[in-house]
Amino acid sequence: MTNDPLVVGVDFGTLSGRAVVVRVRDGAELGSAVHDYAHGVLERALPGGRPLPPDWALQVPSDYVDVLRHAVPKALEAAGVDAADVIGIGTDFTACTMVPTTADGTPLNELPQFADHPHAYVKLWKHHAAQPQADRINDLAEQRKEPWLPRYGGLISSEWEFAKGLQLLEEAPEVYAAMEHWVEAADWIVWQLTGTYVRNECTAGYKGIRQDGAYPSPEFLKGLNPDFERFVEDKLDHPLGALGDRAGSLTAEAAAWTGLREGIAVAVGNVDAHVTAPAARAVEPGVMVAIMGTSTCHVMNGAELRNVPGMCGVVDGGIVPGLYGYEAGQSGVGDIFGWFVQHGVPPEYHERARERGIGVHELLTELAAAQEIGEHGLIALDWHSGNRSVLVDHELSGVIVGQTLATRAEDTYRALLEATAYGTRMIIDTFTDAGVPVTELVIAGGLVKNELLMQIYADVTDLPLSVIDSEQGPALGSAMHAAVAAGAYPDIVAAAAAMGKVRRGVYQPIPGNVEAYERLFVEYQELHDYFGRGANEVMHRLKVLRRKAVEGKNAR
What is the rounded radius of gyration, in angstroms, for the C-alpha atoms of the chain? Predict the structure, then answer.
């Protein structure tokens, strides 16, 4: 080994996995590679063709192993380094993404008897078909005044471990009976690397309703379904590993996949958003990090414990030791922009973009940037994938108000950009009102490249926007945790000081824009509360009608 030790970080996203090779002493990113999942997201049908109901989102776990086989060796090659210098590997995942497995970690979809069963596959974070189970969890928890409920803003999401597990039990009891472990994908991939199953504290706290050392009681679970009483004991509970701890050593098999040395440190698994905070040096209270991609996750540290309505959770040490880690989020952001470009933009725009050698997103952004604030006459709600925070309701759906025959694609596109900024503003205001003030917003993720979007966020939130100085924030954060696991730094705060990267105050709110957006935000709030807080349940009724129609069609 040379005097310059290296670490590898691997970020498992929604559509692909990204690996980056990082120098331990200063966080320099020496090489990276991306590998797309062969099966992508299964939303309409299984690989064999079996149709899926609405609101399902599944994945194939072997796609994750392929990232280790392809992206890690390519990243090492791109870096031009000797794999012998790598002292550790760390990983992160989208959450809550769940894998039903046998006792030895084999995913159930890999068993012949379950190869064509939807419930045997990975349930991706944006699998929202467990909303009825989430509603029952919330209702019973409220009735029983469960002490853990306020730690999650008063509502448990359909995206999380318990709702998805209850759906599995009730819709596929034979799959549930065969399942020995209900595993977060963040832990499953570490299991593949080390041969050892270690459950990480982060997802256990945020997605697994573990607070003050305990999960929901058997009595509570029995109240949901008598057969769910032993869910924690039989399917979920497992020894925990702290963030930055060494989960184990790289096995010979995993070393062959990755091209790394057998025996190097493998860090405890983590969540993409949470590892990004130290990568952006956001380890102090008041600094909120928005990791913007297909969805947005908002994380920040606080010195005191507060109950924030609609937050995804607060966990002691959930991001860095000694502080309370808070999480909120938006279920759809980049997904919404992508949906509109794919399904709502006339062919002439695509042709114009091709002629100029740019993407449709770039063309629409350019056209939208030429508008005055409010010129398009639109207000949109950013709920095309439901609402994660602060309403925690995935039965909600998108709305665009103000369209006329004069409305053009760039008008709608800008309105959708603004809607996601308003959604973030709702989250920030809710945190501030609850006694967790937000003083700075740090942006990470692929959408940071859109300068118009960044300025809109600064103007709508009236906050300075800093930008992570890395195109691979989660992967960098995972690499930093690998450095801690390998003993190169005593904790993640020290690693952040040496390896983290951020450009402060890149976007500043423009006073005139702030004033203009304040008027529009009032309109957004009215729509938000009208459709989201019970005044009009039309979105819920439409979801019910849609499910019945699709079920009837699939049954024919």
Answer: 23
Count CB atoms within 10 A of the CB of residue 533: 10
Query: Could you read off the pLDDT of 534-554 as tens digits, one per residue?
Result: 999 999 999 999 999 998 888
> CB atoms < 10 A from the CB of 404, how many?
8
Question: Cβ–Cβ contacts within 10 Å for residue 123, how many?
Answer: 29
Q: Is beta strand 199-200 parallel, antiparallel or unpaired with respect to 240-241? A: parallel
- DSSP letter string over 464-518? -EEEES-S-HHHHHHHHHHHHHTTSSSSHHHHHHHH--EEEEEE---HHHHHHHH
Burial of 225 by CB count in 10 Å (0-12 exposed, 13-18 middle, 19+ buried)?
A: middle
Question: What CA–CA distance (Å, rounded) separates 241 from 202?
Answer: 9
Q: Position of tokens 């993640």?
A: 492
**What is the rounded CA–CA span in Å between residue 420 and residue 214?**
35
pLDDT at 551: 87
**How many Cβ atoms from other residues are within 10 Å of residue 357's Cβ?**
7
**With helix as H, strand as E and coil as C, how does 132-146 read?**
HHHHHHHHHHHHHCC
Mean pLDDT of the chain: 97
3 state DSSP class of 238 = coil
HSE of 128, CA atoms in CB hemisphere, 13 A: 19
Give the tens place of pLDDT for each residue, 215-241. Answer: 999 999 999 999 999 999 999 999 999
